[in-house]
Amino acid sequence: MFDPAPVAATTASGAEGHRARMRQKLIEAGPAALLDHELIEMILFIALPRRDTKPIARALLDRFGSFADALSAPTQELRQIEGLGDAGIAALRTVQAAALRLSEAPLKNQQVLNNWDRLMDYLTARLARERVEQFRVLFLDAKNRLIADEAQARGTVNHTPVYPREVVKRALELHATALILVHNHPSGDPTPSRADIEMTAEVKQAAAALGITLHDHLIIGRDRPLSFRREGLL
């Protein structure tokens, strides 16, 4: 009579062997040695210890196109990936949050204007793949060091309501003396709209009345950011 136990044991052993080889590859050769689907597998190993995570990793890449897009995909879309579940989604969100913290860390208490490339990398990582507009403000002290990076509002795919008085009020609460405005264009094109230009002028005027400098307004597109100051719009 056929005994299914040896088959189950062999399958389990094969999965465990695969995981062990992946861990060793990561430890010995570093993360650059892993392909995108392998890296996602590694992330899901911890969250889904009893599942074969390779098909899930493949499904994520097929659906979203890249490692970065899979990590930043909306929760409702991640829920549509068979086998991922809340534990898998939480694992992806944890890695996303860790990546953002790492990219933000070099900016804390540093002169932001002297670390422009790092600032662009951080803002691109945070906003370039957002599906709806998000308006953020970087609050700076008298030496242009970053005090806080805060989301002020979230909107729709093409509009975010911004209230200059609220921006300035928050700057006063944080004792900030300078600002950098930031928002994303989910369309991928960072070209500013007339509303973007008008809102920037309103914030600049409200801030200047209280001795607060508006250094720039950055629009984060899919492939590149746009600086109002460098475009002569500020």
Could you describe the 3D structure shown?
The protein is 49% helix and 15% strand. It has helices at residues 5-29, 36-47, 53-64, 67-71, 75-78, 85-104, 116-127, 164-173, 194-208; strands at residues 134-140, 146-154, 178-184, 213-220, 225-227. The protein has a five-stranded mixed beta sheet with strand order 2-1-3-4-5, sandwiched between helices. It starts with a helix and ends in a 7-residue tail after the last strand.
Summarize the structure.
With 234 residues, the protein is an alpha+beta fold. 49% of the residues lie in helices and 15% in strands.
Number of helices: 9
Structural class: alpha+beta
Number of strands: 5
Give the uncertain stretches in residue-range form: 1-12
Write out the strand line-up for the largest beta sheet, numbering strands in chain order: 2-1-3-4-5
Envelope shape: elongated
| Beta strand % | 5-15%
As for the number of domains, it is 2
- Assigned CATH architecture of the largest domain: 3-Layer(aba) Sandwich
What's the layout of helices and strands?
Blueprint: H1 5-29, H2 36-47, H3 53-64, H4 67-71, H5 75-78, H6 85-104, H7 116-127, E1 134-140, E2 146-154, H8 164-173, E3 178-184, H9 194-208, E4 213-220, E5 225-227
Parallel strand pairs: 3-4
Antiparallel strand pairs: 1-2, 1-3, 4-5
